[in-house]
Design brief:
Layout: E1 10-14, H1 39-42, H2 45-50, H3 52-66, H4 73-84, E2 89-93, H5 99-103, E3 108-110, E4 113-120, E5 126-128, E6 147-151, H6 161-170, E7 173-177, H7 189-196, E8 199-204, E9 216-219, H8 222-234
Helix pairs in contact: 4-8
This protein binds adenosine-5-diphosphoribose.
């Protein structure tokens, strides 16, 4: 990519593909089923209203499962970038796992929420939560039994979009890693980057749906191509 050494501020968008090699399933694999469920049966507010036990059990299983997974070399390389990059950096992740943080990254924004948070719909407090929600535990703040997964479902508004757009306006480079480009508004960030005239790079296993928007695409497994790119950034 041209003029990498002119780059100061970076926005990176990550998706399920960066955690795939840690053993966490991506969403849009063959068959379109996500852990044997249709997405609309478990990941919408309507599903939660219709069958809260199904949804809570599903997310309890996911919450338990991610705690057994480990960051892979792609997460570790991004954490290294975070430690060593003296310019601006924001890692915007669509992932609800905590593998960026467990690898040591700090400048991380979870636009789709976090598995390890519970959100109280009575008092609007978010609490760190590692155990199950199926037995309707009390909110640590208000004692109501109204906790739900702090995960942004289809039809709900992603978090902190204003901060994301602000970082993009100040960025010189936008990089997308391991995302299919199927879900907006995340999938639209590359178009925003192009309108702002900043450099764009895609790192993914296969061309994403928005691939044509990127100035450069590198294909391969995240655990290989992310560390390679970060070496280039840190040793221009
Ligand atoms: N390395 C790099 N990329 C990979 C790898 C890998 N090892 N394995 C898979 N991929 C790519 C796939 O080719 C695909 O393009 O990662 C992408 C994963 O796409 P999705 O499963 O659609 O995941 P994502 O883009 O994160 O989904 C976006 O959809 O269901 C919602 O809220 C959920 O945040 C999620 C959003």
């Amino acid at each position: 990519m041209a003029a990498m050494n002119a780059i100061r501020n970076i926005v990176i968008l990550t998706g399920a593909g960066i955690s795939a090699e840690s053993g966490i399933d991506t969403f849009r694999s063959e068959g379109g089923l996500w852990e044997q469920h249709r997405v609309e049966d478990v990941a919408t507010p309507e599903a939660f209203a219709r069958d809260p036990d199904l949804v809570l059990r599903f997310y309890d299983m996911r919450r338990e499962s991610i705690q057994t997974k480990l960051p892979n070399p792609a997460h570790e390389a991004l954490a290294r970038l975070d430690r060593q990059w003296t310019g601006g950096l924001l890692i915007v992740t669509q992932n609800v796992d905590d593998l960026h943080e467990r690898a040591g990254a700090r400048r991380v924004l979870h636009m789709h929420g976090e598995h390890l948070n519970a959100w109280c719909t009575a008092c609007d407090t978010r609490s760190r939560w590692t155990g199950p929600l199926i037995d309707r535990p009390e909110c640590p703040a208000c004692r109501s039994r109204a906790l739900r997964p702090d995960v942004v479902w289809f039809g709900e508004m992603p978090y902190r979009m204003d901060e994301i757009y602000r970082a993009l306006r100040e960025a010189d480079l936008f990089v997308s890693i391991g995302t299919s480009g199927a879900v907006y508004p995340a999938a639209g960030l590359v178009q925003g980057a192009r309108e702002l005239g900043i450099a764009t790079l895609e790192l993914n296993l296969e061309p994403s749906q928005g691939s044509h928007w990127f100035q450069e695409t590198r294909l391969g497994r995240a655990s290989a191509i992310v560390p390679e790119w970060i070496d280039e950034m840190l040793n221009p």
